[in-house]
Amino acid sequence: MKTYNAYCFDLDGTVYRGKEGIESAVRFVHRLQEKGLEYYFITNNSSKTTTQLQHALRDVGIETEEFRIYSSAITTAKFISQNYKDAKVNMIGSEGLETALKEEGISVTDDLHPDVVVMGIDRTVDYMKLARASAAIQNGAKLIGTNKDIKFPTEYGFLPGNGSFVSLVANVAGVEPLYVGKPSPVMLEVIQEEYGYGKEDMVMIGDNYDTDILCGIHFGCDTIHVNTGVTSTEVVMEKEAQPTYCYENLDQVEL
Ligand SMILES: [Mg+2]
């Protein structure tokens, strides 16, 4: 396998499982660090702050700078500032997204004529917030969702995810939303834009075919599937679009 300039890792199921590190992945990141190669962590999780994710990585033995961590909240904020300069933004979302927008210097407004409506998971969402977002989009604002997950598993069964609320607003306003989280290529596009990499310089590494591998394929870079999480190698083998490489774990990858 060739050496890349930017190794982009999924987190859950690729670098750790809950609080437990995946040792082969931790060793691989250490090898990248020793060789001075660049790496980034990209996760659809928008509820954790970058600092919380940095601590989660530290807990499994990876010391990393915050700038290498791209949650869907952070990436959404960067995407807006890269593509909608000086935009007025209407937001539905939790603290993670609010902080990310603020750190990018994006001004959040409640008026009904913003340039962009951005939606992340908001556990206090109510009719008025959804009504305002729907109206703003009909007034011409672009609809951007941090991630499209319709539901997520809990001890009570599945509960509504961000994608459910974004779909609701999109249906009312009659538009197609743009999603930032994987499998959309936007997270890799934001990293490419920020550092000036070519697509051939980048590789996307993940356990989940439907999010990580498709994100890389949609973007147009090489991909590595690891058999340490959601999608088994057997299931990946049946897919029409194959990852560039399939490994049991990252100990098998030479640098
Ligand atoms: Mg994963």
TrEMBL record:
Domain of life: Bacteria
Keywords: Hydrolase, Magnesium, Metal-binding
Binding of substrate, residues: K182
Active-site residues, as the UniProt record annotates them: D10 (nucleophile), D12 (proton donor)
Positions with a binding annotation for Mg(2+): D10, D12, D207
A Pfam family of this chain: Hydrolase_like
GO MF, any single term: metal ion binding
PANTHER family assigned: 4-NITROPHENYLPHOSPHATASE-RELATED, HALOACID DEHALOGENASE-LIKE HYDROLASE DOMAIN-CONTAINING PROTEIN 2
Entry-linked NCBIfam families: HAD-SF-IIA (TIGR01460), HAD-SF-IIA-hyp2 (TIGR01457)
Recorded family membership: Belongs to the HAD-like hydrolase superfamily. NagD family.
Protein name: 4-nitrophenyl phosphatase
Protein species of origin: Ureibacillus acetophenoni
Native organism taxonomy: Bacteria, Bacillati, Bacillota, Bacilli, Bacillales
